[in-house]
């Protein structure tokens, strides 16, 4: 097992990349999808089940964890890995994005952000330095630079000012992170949909120097076409020998489009959140299990899926569980969705390795166009 | 594997009995605790996890299942075992008790009960004949006779009339059940706290003839002392060569006291329901995980317990999950509680086999008297 963090680019197919990240806590096969473990738990899943779906790495949320149970407390309890019983790599976000979307009475200055907790109203401050400290206390393997980004659409001036502030914060994050062998610090490119601002941001980050680079500020309201428009040029602005992470993405077709455009890592609450609201993702598109047409359907959600929900249960049963408000409904559908997302990633990795990503992608879209199986 | 239902009494120690029930779906080691799978799921557990805790048999609720998803629907989907992915034995109650406690606008006649569903207000009827039909449609291995019982305290006349009605319904249940090799029908003794009525009920049931006998009408408000008072004489009124089932019991000390008095089978929602409200059962008594004293306690709930909650997590983590309203809290605490209840039964079975039940019981009470471990 390595004691260092490193990225190996193993193959490319067009802009799509097959790679491997080595860390002291294990390997991450890329393109990688990271399930989100917001409050030190991937909701409705035991961590051994998350590993069974094929996940190599989880994402933890600095904002949620700093508020409850608190970073210092987690540190005293041996760090986030031990706290939540997950010994593989963990990436933590910086807290910046979630402060902006969840916290109350936030105030942004050059120094950082002050805000009130959405849980108990307590005052908190997040700065690049405090974000680095919290992520160190959590024991995160991949630490994200502290940044800020506007929801889109936003005017160019707002995007430009925000990006430049984030670049100054990126430098302070790098300084505060220091030298921590085995742990990585990722910078985050900003610039909205403006190509020149993306280029300026990428240059600033490269000048500072990071172990990996995220494309930030997307999946914030701009739509898929605009996002793909940015991804057509933004990843190439970042160093080819470092992993590229697209934050907060996405739906299966977003993910496929992002990988096609050179993205190596992604995260999203979609598979877990949808699992709790009765939406299942399958090769043939999304299925709403609460729909009455499933109520007496003895067939599995997806006959070709090997997850426990599909292997052991009928649509009729899953429908019943959801209607009855049973916890097992969230457990099984979350498992299915995470399994599907990981199979999607595995399929793309295999296709890139074989140099047949275009054919794989065509088949992906063909299956989705078929739509869900007909009612019996 | 047998094709018949049978009970073997293997050892006795005082009134306590060690036994084995053989069914075509597998063996049930007695004394047995049956987790409750109300709506075709043991809440917050996958069935393979329920089996891992050591459960040989589950209880299903006729009342809940007839309302949603419906007995005919479950039958068309292949029966309850297949529907919920549990291939070991299932006992179903008759629906009588839950109609009386949950349904709206109920009307009791000699024929049976009419009522409105608490879910959607739809009109339903339950009679001994319909209860037998529903339990057959579900595919239940152990079917309970349809009965009725008053909450205690109740006056003697009400208890007597109710018991006699239940005995007439027991005869109709026996008639309607017919001959179903491999499936068992249990009669239910009633009579409240009145010894002579218990004797009359037992005689009536024996005259009809059942594969097993339940002590019913207890755990309905009478308190432990009164319940044990009945259990001091009621089980001995029932045939020694048939299993004796105490319905709806109970807390760990209720269970131990019942086994001591000759009970072979029990069921209760306590371990599962408590698991969702933050209460854990341990050798040293109940622990409320939501209590602030656990918030930084790195120790497991019970260092001597082998369940996943105790093996993999700290009290601090379990406390955090409960406070954050996480589904994993219910999953882990339910698992722990079911594990504890099954360990309790295994301990008693071992003690009876060795002829040292009294010593085992003394140790059980000694550990509980110690109370939970001290805060750090």
UniProtKB/TrEMBL annotation, chains A, B:
Quaternary structure annotation from Swiss-Prot or TrEMBL: Homodimer. Within each dimer, one monomer is responsible for RNA recognition and catalysis, while the other monomer binds to the replacement base PreQ1.
Keyword check for Zinc: yes
Q: Which residues form the signal peptide?
A: none
Q: Which cofactor does it need?
A: Zn(2+)
Q: Where does Zn(2+) bind?
A: 305, 307, 310, 336
HAMAP family named among the record's database cross-references: Q_tRNA_Tgt
Q: Which residues form the tRNA-guanine(15) transglycosylase-like domain?
A: 15-367
Q: Where does substrate bind?
A: 93-97, 147, 190, 217
What's the name of the protein? Queuine tRNA-ribosyltransferase
Q: Which GO terms describe its biological process?
A: tRNA queuosine(34) biosynthetic process
Taxonomically, what lineage is the organism? Bacteria, Pseudomonadati, Pseudomonadota, Alphaproteobacteria, Rhodobacterales
Sorted UniProt keywords: Glycosyltransferase, Metal-binding, Queuosine biosynthesis, Transferase, tRNA processing, Zinc
Quick one: where's region RNA binding? Answer: 248-254, 272-276
GO CC terms in record: cytosol
Q: Which GO terms describe its molecular function?
A: metal ion binding; tRNA-guanosine(34) queuine transglycosylase activity
Q: What class of enzyme is it?
A: transferase
State the family it belongs to: Belongs to the queuine tRNA-ribosyltransferase family.
UniProt key word rRNA processing: no
Q: In which pathway does it act?
A: tRNA modification; tRNA-queuosine biosynthesis
Any idea which residues are catalytic in this one?
Answer: 93 (proton acceptor), 267 (nucleophile)
Q: How is the cofactor bound?
A: Binds 1 zinc ion per subunit.
Function, as annotated: Catalyzes the base-exchange of a guanine (G) residue with the queuine precursor 7-aminomethyl-7-deazaguanine (PreQ1) at position 34 (anticodon wobble position) in tRNAs with GU(N) anticodons (tRNA-Asp, -Asn, -His and -Tyr). Catalysis occurs through a double-displacement mechanism. The nucleophile active site attacks the C1' of nucleotide 34 to detach the guanine base from the RNA, forming a covalent enzyme-RNA intermediate. The proton acceptor active site deprotonates the incoming PreQ1, allowing a nucleophilic attack on the C1' of the ribose to form the product.
EC number, UniProt record: 2.4.2.29
Which catalytic reaction applies to this protein?
Answer: 7-aminomethyl-7-carbaguanine + guanosine(34) in tRNA = 7-aminomethyl-7-carbaguanosine(34) in tRNA + guanine
């Amino acid at each position: 097992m390595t004691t260092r963090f490193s990225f190996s680019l193993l193959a490319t197919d067009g802009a799509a990349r097959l790679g491997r990240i080595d860390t002291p806590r294990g390997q991450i096969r890329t393109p990688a999808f990271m399930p989100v473990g917001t409050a030190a738990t991937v909701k409705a899943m035991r961590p051994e089940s998350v590993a069974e779906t094929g996940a190599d790495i989880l994402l933890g949320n600095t904002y949620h964890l700093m508020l409850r149970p608190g970073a210092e407390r987690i540190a005293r309890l041996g760090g986030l890995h031990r706290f939540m019983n997950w010994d593989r790599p963990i990436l933590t976000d910086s807290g910046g994005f979630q402060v902006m979307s969840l916290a109350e009475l936030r105030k942004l200055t050059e120094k950082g952000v002050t805000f009130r907790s959405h849980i108990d109203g307590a005052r908190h401050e997040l700065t690049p330095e405090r974000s680095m400290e919290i992520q160190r206390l959590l024991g995160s393997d991949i630490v994200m630079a502290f940044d800020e980004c506007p929801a889109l659409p936003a005017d160019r001036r707002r995007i430009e000012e925000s990006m430049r502030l984030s670049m100054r914060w990126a430098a302070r994050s790098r300084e505060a992170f220091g030298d921590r062998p085995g742990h990585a610090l990722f910078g985050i490119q900003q610039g909205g949909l403006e190509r020149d601002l993306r280029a300026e941001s990428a240059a600033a980050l490269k000048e500072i120097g990071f172990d990996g680079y995220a494309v930030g500020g997307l999946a914030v309201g701009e739509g898929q076409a605009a996002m793909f428009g940015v991804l057509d040029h933004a990843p190439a602005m970042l160093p080819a020998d470092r992993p590229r992470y697209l934050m907060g993405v996405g739906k299966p077709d977003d993910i496929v489009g992002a990988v096609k455009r050179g993205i190596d890592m992604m995260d999203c609450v979609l598979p877990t959140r949808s699992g709790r609201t009765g939406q299942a993702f399958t090769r043939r598109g999304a299925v709403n299990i609460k729909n009455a047409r499933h109520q007496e359907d003895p067939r599995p959600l997806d006959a070709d899926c090997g997850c426990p929900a599909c292997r052991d249960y009928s649509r009729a049963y899953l429908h019943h569980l959801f209607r009855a408000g049973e916890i097992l409904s969230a457990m099984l559908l979350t498992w299915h969705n995470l399994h599907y997302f990981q199979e999607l990633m595995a399929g793309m990795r295999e296709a890139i390795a074989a140099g047949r990503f275009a054919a794989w992608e065509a088949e992906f879209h063909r299956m989705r166009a078929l739509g869900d199986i007909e009612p019996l």
